[in-house]
Specification:
Blueprint lengths: L8 H7 L3 H8 L9 H7 L4 H8 L3 H17 L1
């Protein structure tokens, strides 16, 4: 899957349902993804929004997402 800062989080999580747990390992601030409020926010959020909320620069977040996907695909 190709994604960028405008990609909706719902699209990414549909393709990679294991990703929330990996995000939490990356930074505990991502725990919000598994909360009821977080699940509502995800419906409208994109990668840029997640970057802003987490404090990680967008390019760094995209790089980390790709690393997680690559690692998971090798397993």
């Amino acid at each position: 899957m190709n994604y960028n800062e405008q990609t909706k989080l719902t699209e990414i999580l549909a393709a990679y349902p294991w990703l929330p747990e990996e995000l939490i390992k990356l930074d505990s601030r991502f725990k919000i993804v598994n909360t009821p409020i977080g699940k509502m926010m995800i419906k409208k959020a994109n990668v840029a929004d997640l970057s802003e909320k987490s404090g990680l620069p967008t390019e760094e977040l995209l790089k980390r997402l790709q690393e997680m996907v690559d690692k998971h695909n090798k397993a």
